[in-house]
Design goal:
The complex is a heterodimer of chains A (365) and B (319). Chain A is mostly helical. Chain A has 14 helices and 4 strands. Chain A has helices spanning 4-20, 22-42, 64-74, 89-95, 108-113, 129-149, 170-200, 203-208, 214-244, 254-275, 279-296, 308-314, 318-332, 335-359; strands spanning 50-56, 78-82, 101-104, 121-123. In chain B, α9 packs across α10. The longest helix of chain B is centred in the middle third of the chain and has 16 residues, at 162-177. The chains are: A mainly alpha (365), B alpha/beta (319).
């Protein structure tokens, strides 16, 4: 006979305590937003220009050399910095610890006009992704120049698009991932900590002397983490849209995931805190369970970029289904896929919740 | 029926006999103290009575109920302050009382309870900023939320400074005055003596003495004795002429007193001896003496612990 009144009282005391604790508030609400800002900024397309140092030895005014550089500039992928021809480019680059440079050779215009082969020299570091971009860009522009010299036209072009009707940016994938991250981290770490600390400080014993039952206690915690998740969801979506112009589909299908996720990880946290003896052990076990899930479930990167064996690991992690569900709803609009994910999450949640309540003891024998 | 009845209670942790056949009962309105050193089995006993631990064997009735099987019902009728009481960090005493009141469905007046435990001035301070004494008082306040008639106080003043301890004693006396039945554990002798109507001294899971302080001293102490400040010859004179046991040590003649008139007999003999004597006093073992004797004696041997006044107070202080 669980009592709603007792659950509410416990909810009020716990949430008030949580809000009074700056650390909890930081990790629950501020930290996920900071993550969005950092990852959004790192992968923001406007900062994608690669700085490249260029020497132009072609002396013809308005010649092919200058036009080549203009064409490179127009691609929008390179930020071109001119270097005086009196310098040696390789040592110039080395002194700036940067790998990328381009040299337009002397007599470039003359060679181009007379259809003599001429090489543009590209400095780069094969291991650096910026060098790949520079090389690709220079190649593209060189091809265009070759084509133009023989009055050719482009036959095979590229039209860029993604699976969504609107153009999808990295931040669009990032937001469901980071929502999944906060669904995992706050309830999980808090419950591992709370359930092992309360056991050690005998607070559970203390509570067992009141009419509050352990079911009611856990229900109050789950309720709070659902509220916290809803708050951080709203914050993250708002930041994603306002700061990065993310395209997110908001639909009622998100709600079941925002209810199930915190329930699942609150119960999992309590299970870890319950089966371990000391708070220190609980912390370690909690990290062992949490960290692989944090990185392998598609939180920061889509799992499709990972090797197959890591992808199969991802498929046994509960967080994967939460994030895939969120992606299905928010990015792809694939509701039947999301329903499958929710089904998986429901089953895992029930199993873990029952195990946690069963193994969790107020009092000892 | 007495609020607490315990018969032959046993609780072993593997090879450790934490509680090894304890029997006692606590009367209504009484303050009963379980006194003993750390590890004597006090807390295990009280936790079994509270329904927090399962007994191995024996019979226990607390308010007529089995604490383990009927714990949920029992807990609504008792108040408990566990050893090393702690609470949620970011909750004030007033909020804690309201919270507990809601859990119990009793909704008491927080101010009334705060006043009862002398905590009105700190009612709004977060628990983690309270002093040790204030935390303990918060625990007491929570134990009172369901207005129980039976209270369990497990080491209510351990680790507190003397003034905080006295404040807690004040609260406990107030509760006793309200007619509440209280069982408390302590390893402070003065606490047991100050607060309890009856004391059970516990050692190695067994009760080694039980009763009021006077009863315990009478039963286990060395009895009353007259001390005469004079020379050794007086002791010899008393022994031969008055027929009383007398010893001499360091300027003091000690005469064991069995009957009140023995005092007079001994003094007459001292006067008749013709030797100088400068003063007298009567002495008896304190509960302190008895406690130390019982608890440390039990380590060596359990037999003749009530030796007949051979041990003087001075010797004991030196040792």
């Amino acid at each position: 006979m669980p009592s709603g009144g007792r659950i509410w009282s416990d909810f009020v005391v716990y949430s008030r305590g949580y809000l009074r604790n700056r650390f909890g508030l930081f990790f629950g609400l501020v930290f996920p937003v900071i993550l969005i800002l950092i990852f959004g900024a790192i992968f923001s397309p406007s900062t994608g220009k690669v700085t490249v140092y260029v020497q132009n030895f072609d002396t013809t005014p308005e010649g092919a050399g200058v036009q080549f550089l203009n064409a490179l500039n127009k691609t929008g992928t390179l930020a071109i910095n001119m270097v005086p021809t009196s310098d040696t480019l390789s040592s110039y680059l080395a002194s700036r610890s940067t790998p990328d440079g381009i040299i337009i050779p002397a007599g470039f215009t003359a060679a181009y006009v007379s259809e003599q082969r001429v090489n543009v020299t590209v400095y780069g570091n094969p291991a650096s992704s910026s060098s790949t971009i520079v090389l690709g860009t220079v190649e593209g522009v060189a091809n265009l120049f070759n084509l133009e010299r023989f009055n050719g036209t482009v036959i095979v072009g590229i039209a860029q698009t993604t699976v969504n009707t609107e153009q999808t940016k990295y931040v669009d994938f990032l937001i469901p991932g980071l929502i999944g991250f906060s669904i995992l981290v706050s309830p999980m770490f808090s419950l591992v900590n709370v359930s092992s600390e309360y056991k050690k400080s005998k607070l559970f014993k203390q509570l067992s002397l009141t009419p509050l039952t352990k079911m009611e206690w856990l229900a109050a915690k789950v309720m709070w983490y659902i509220v916290l998740t809803a708050l951080s969801f709203a914050l993250m979506v708002a930041v994603g849209i306002l700061a990065f112009g993310a395209h997110i589909t908001l639909s009622v299908w998100i709600v079941p995931l925002l209810l199930l996720g915190p329930t699942l990880f609150a119960a999992l946290g309590m299970l870890v805190g319950t089966v371990t003896k000391e708070p220190e052990t609980a912390g370690v076990v909690g990290n062992i369970v949490t960290f692989p899930m944090m990185f392998l479930s598609g939180t920061f990167f889509p799992i499709s970029i990972m090797p197959m064996y890591l992808q199969s690991i991802a498929h046994v992690l509960p967080l994967f289904y939460v994030i895939e569900g969120l992606n299905n709803v928010m990015v792809y609009g694939n509701i039947s896929g999301a329903i499958f994910d929710m089904g998986v999450v429901v089953v895992i949640t029930i199993v873990i919740f029952l195990a946690a309540v069963r193994l969790f003891k107020w009092r000892e024998d | 029926m007495a609020p607490i009845e315990v018969t032959a209670l046993k609780k072993y942790y593997g090879p450790v006999k934490a509680v090894d056949g304890i029997s006692f009962s606590v009367k209504e309105g009484e303050v009963f103290g379980l006194l003993g050193p750390n590890g004597a089995g006090k807390t295990t006993t009280i936790e079994v009575l509270e329904g927090l631990r399962r007994k191995d064997s024996g019979t226990i009735k607390v308010l007529g109920m089995d604490p383990w099987d009927e714990g949920y019902a029992l807990h609504r009728r008792i108040g408990v302050i566990p050893q090393e009481f702690t609470f949620f960090e970011k909750v004030s005493p007033r909020e804690a009382i309201i919270y507990y009141g809601e859990l119990f469905g009793t909704r008491p007046d927080p101010d009334e309870i705060l006043k009862m435990v002398l905590l009105e001035d700190s009612a709004s301070i977060m628990f983690d900023s309270l002093s040790g004494g204030q935390k303990q008082k918060t625990g007491l306040a929570l134990a009172l939320v369901n207005s129980p008639d039976l209270l369990f106080l497990d080491e209510p003043t351990t680790g507190l400074d003397p003034s905080a301890r006295r404040a807690i004693w004040e609260v406990i006396r107030g509760l006793k005055a309200k007619g509440k039945t209280i069982i408390l554990t302590t390893h402070y002798l003065d606490e047991a003596q100050q607060l309890s109507d009856r004391v059970a001294i516990v050692n190695f899971g067994k009760i080694v003495a039980m009763g009021t302080s006077d009863e315990i001293i009478r039963e286990h102490g060395s009895g009353e004795r007259l001390e005469i400040f004079g020379d050794e010859a007086i002791a010899g004179y008393i022994r031969t002429n008055a027929g009383l046991e007398a010893e001499f040590d360091d300027g003091v003649v000690r005469v064991a007193i069995k009957l009140q008139k023995d005092v007079l007999t001994a003094l007459q003999a001292a006067e008749a001896s013709g030797h100088e004597w400068t003063g007298i006093r009567t002495q008896r073992d304190s509960l302190d003496d008895v406690f130390i004797k019982l608890v440390s004696g039990a380590i060596d041997e359990s037999g003749e612990m009530t030796s007949k006044g051979s041990r003087s107070d001075t010797e004991q202080q030196e040792g």
